Amino acid sequence: MNPLPPLELLFDSRRGTDLPLPPELSAFFGRLGFPLRPGRSYVISNFVSTIDGVVALDAPGKAIGDVISGANEHDSAVMGLLRSVAEVVIVGAGTLRASPRHIWTAEHIFPALTSAYNSLRKNITETPTPLNVVVSASASLDLSMPLFTSGKVEVLIVTTKAGEERIRKMRMPVWVKVIAPRDSGFLTAREIFDAIEVVRPSSKIILVEGGPQLMGDLFEDGWMDELFLTLAPHIAGRVSSMERLGIVAQRIFAPDNPLWASLVSVKREGSHLFLRYAFDR
User: Is residue 44 within 8 Å of residue 207, measured between CB atoms?
Assistant: First the structure.
């Protein structure tokens, strides 16, 4: 029995070649396809935002997505679907700290569809779980978090030489790898993707789940192919004394260089909208 009613399809440009979704996934989501290109990864991102553009609240101990989405099951199920087709999931250190018990797999975010997610994954990739990549220049990470200790996923920490020196003083399991492309400073998108290529070469689909500064870097360097955006029907609000981030932080594009997107699809569940945008890369 399918645990979710189907998303209502409002618009679909039928982008890409259809993936072989099992009946349980196609019943709730519909079709899913990507215009994959030989020789390079296809980079997608997934966020949930309030109507006023907030993607992260100052809510310690609460999962970022659940707080914003109102624990919407369809949002979690879509996130699981995207993880099930991705060979790599990238997060920033801030996202990891905000969700300290999280592991970036499909079954972790929506266990009810685990069997369907696994079936899809077996049909499209040889890797049982996505490589979880944590980007942190300082590598100020808590290695006692389940992401690092559970052994459920292979983990790659992309950091600097200074960060590598810090983290190698701790005991690391064999499934946690560290690559440091530079001595210090900010890591570029090229350095992050080159590090991924060492550990998980020729990845077809790479999923980015934050944070906003990392997204800003990827957009600035032209790496982003698509954005899956759930629009949650509430207003979060902002005050000057509290930072509430949008999808992109620490980068300015408009008015001189706005990054326009093409609408790929619109779906609805109740008052939640599920939007998909493509960017020229």
Answer: yes
DSSP sequence for the chain: --SSPPPEEEEE---SEEP---HHHHHHH---EE---TTSPEEEEEEEEETTS----S-TTS-HHHHHHTS-HHHHHHHHHHHHH-SEEEEEHHHHHHSTT---SHHHH-GGGHHHHHHHHHHH-S-SSPEEEEE-SS----TTSHHHHS-SS-EEEEEEHHHHHHHTTS---TTEEEEEEESSSPPPHHHHHHHHHHHSTT-SEEEE---HHHHHHHHHTT---EEEEEEES-----BTTB----S--S---TTTS----EEEEEEEETTEEEEEEE---
Distance CA(244)–CA(102), nearest Å, equals 21
Distance CA 68, CA 233 (A): 9
CB 154 within 8 A of CB 126: no
- pTM for this predicted structure: 0.95
* The one-letter amino acid at 151: G
pLDDT in tens, 45-80: 999 999 999 998 866 555 567 889 999 999 999 999
Rounded to whole angstroms, the maximal C-alpha distance in the chain is: 53
Give the separation between CA 195 and CA 199, rounded to whole angstroms: 7
Q: Is the peptide bond before 20 cis (omega within 30 degrees of 0)?
A: no
Beta strands 155-160 and 176-182 are: parallel
